[in-house]
Specification:
The protein is an all-alpha fold. Helix content is 53%, strand content 0%. It contains three helices and no strands. The longest helix is centred in the first third of the chain and has 20 residues. The protein is rod-shaped, with a radius of gyration of 26 Å. The two termini are 49 Å apart.
Length: 90
Amino acid sequence: MKFIDPTHPVYRPLWVRLVLVGGCVAWTAVEYYNGQQTWGLIFLVISSYAFAQLLLFYKPPEEQAEKPAEEKLAEEKPVEDKPAGDNREQ
């Protein structure tokens, strides 16, 4: 199970990923500024993980994978018309 799923469509825009990572880093700074080293360390780890998943190693998911040539040809073939009263399988 992943903590952050980078394939989710909400992470596609760059500005969303930057805001999330920036928010984590800002909260890390707040914790260290207030003298909370433990919480600062926890958020430093979360910030590092978010940076790695959303910015460093991020690969946008493909919209639609290219279909093989056989599938494209099969979709383009016209359907044979059967006589109206003929429901038998041929």
